[in-house]
Amino acid sequence: KKTKKDPKTGQEEESHTCCGCRFPLLFALLQLALGISITVLGFLMAGISSSLLVRDTPYWAGIILCVVSLVGFVMLCISYQPDEKTCVQFTVKLMYFLLSALGLIACVLAVAFAAHHYLQMTKFTCDTILESCQCKLDSVDPLGRTFLYQDAADCGSLTSMLNLYLLLQMALNLVTALVCLLACFVMWKHRYQVFYVGVRFYPLTEGQQQKV
Questions:
Q1: What is the torsion angle, in degrees rounded to the nearest 10, for the CA atoms of residue 184, residue 185, residue 187 and residue 191?
Q2: 152: closest CA among 49, 77, 58, 64?
Q3: What pTM, to 2 d.p., does this model score?
Q4: pLDDT at 189 over 90
C-alpha cells in the first residue's frame, strides 16, 4: 500500500535542500576553502619576520573557520527531521550557529588588525640595521615610535610583501565574515522563518468558519 506523504513535510524537505544539495554544504565548503587560505597566508606572514605579533598573522581566524566547516559537514551527515526532533540534530545546529558567530567576530577582528597595521606601514620610514628592518612612524621626531622587524635583511622586499599579505588578509577575512553572517542568518531563518513578538494568532480556515 502506498502511504500519502504529508504536504508540510514535503515542503520542509524541499526548503531544506537547494539545487539537490543540503543547506550547509555550500557554506561549509566556502568556510573550509577560505579558512585554509587564511591559515596558510597567516603562517606565510609569520615566516617573513619572527617579530610579527599574533594579531598581525591571523591564522587563528582560519583555524576557527576550519572547525566551523567540519561541524557543518557533521550536520550534513545527520538525517534531517523537521523541527529538530532529535537532540543530536539540535545540538549540532546550535554548535554550527554559535561557531559561525564566533568565526564572524574573529574575521572582523582580523580585518581591523590588518587594516591598522597596513595604515601604519604606509607612514613608515625604514632602514636596515644588522639584518633587521627598523621602521619609524615619524623620522623627524627622535622620540617617535619605532618598529623592529627581525630576520629581514631587505626592508624594501619586506614592506612590499607585508603590504600585499595584509591586503589579502583584509579581503579574505571580509569575504569570510560575510559568509559567516549569511550562514547565521539562513540558520536562524530556516528555524524560525518569521520573527514574532507576543502571542501568535492563527487565522481561521474556511472549514472552521463554516462550522461556526
A1: 140
A2: 49
A3: 0.74
A4: no
